[in-house]
Amino acid sequence: MNTHQFQQNLVGLQDNMLNFALKLTANSDEAHELLQDTTLKVLDNQEKYIDNTNFKGWVLTIMRNIFINNYHKVVRTQTMVDQYADLYNLEVLSEASFDSPETSYRIQEINQAIEKLEDDLRIPFSFYLSGYKYHEIADQLAMPLGTVKSRIYFARQELQQNLKELNLER
Question: How distant, in Å, are the alpha carbons of 94, 108, 121 from that of 103?
Answer without folding.
Answer: 12, 9, 25
